[in-house]
Amino acid sequence: MKIFIDSGDTNEIREAHEMGLIDGVTTNPTLASKSGKPFKQLIMEITEIIDGPISAEVVSTTAAEIIPEGEGLAQWHKNIVVKVPLIGEGLKAVKALTAKGIKTNVTLCFTASQALLAAKAGATYISPFVGRLDDISTDGMQVIRDIRLIYDNYGYETQILTASARSPMHFLEAARIGSDVITAPFSVLKQLLHHPLTDSGLKKFLADWEKAQK
Ligand code: E4P
Predict the structure, then answer these.
(1) Parallel, antiparallel or unpaired: strands 181-184 and 2-6
(2) pLDDT (tens digit per residue) in 82-135
(3) For the segment 18-41, what is each residue's pLDDT rounded down to a tens digit?
(4) Residue 115 near residue 150, CB atoms below 8 Å
């Protein structure tokens, strides 16, 4: 499973990259505005840290506007993936951008049926938001299971990018299901590393080593 970091913070993107964890980056308008940097500057800084897919989201809502906005974003760098909302106008734009060889990430997906439509439009990635579904008492990971089944049934090549991941259990379950990619905040990626037996085991090894030196 590929791991993307969901972040607009270049310090944490760099740190996660140095740990060898990161295959790509997802951003969204909320994360980009939190960075306090102009959007293009932020994305270009990220391209210098990570040599992998970097999702940059459009803010237009009609196909007539999304298409040129997406073309503009794609020109910034070869690794840009244009992130487009899962609305009818968005899917029209995905079809047009795909025809021009531009990669797309269809975002704000909440059902497997929406994911099927995005695949038909030619999306490179589909981003189902599992955490936000859990927030409204719906099983987010079931949507990932359903999408995996449907994409495999029909041989769609759109990659499932499990998004809005909020916990180590989302990560584990996504890997079990066969999600192609997961994107998670740095806090979740760090949680994955920790186990109390790793920490106590290391402490004991080091203490025993010290004792033997005396
Ligand atoms: C995905 O691409 C989104 O940026 C993100 O995963 C949303 O996560 P949130 O629901 O925690 O805001």
Answers:
(1) parallel
(2) 999 999 999 999 999 999 999 999 999 999 999 999 999 999 999 999 999 999
(3) 999 899 999 999 999 999 999 999
(4) yes
Catalytic residues: 83
Global pTM? 0.96
**Is the CB of 183 within 6 Å of ligand 1?**
yes
Whether the Cβ atoms of residue 165 and residue 132 lie closer than 8 Å to each other: no
| Three-class secondary structure of residue 60 per DSSP | coil
Give the CATH fold of the 2-212 domain: TIM Barrel (3.20.20)
Q: Are 12 and 31 in contact (CB under 8 A)?
A: no
Strand partners, 92: none
Of all protein residues, the one whose alpha carbon is nearest to atom 10 of ligand 1 is 164
Q: Which residue has a Cα nearest atom 8 of ligand 1? A: 164
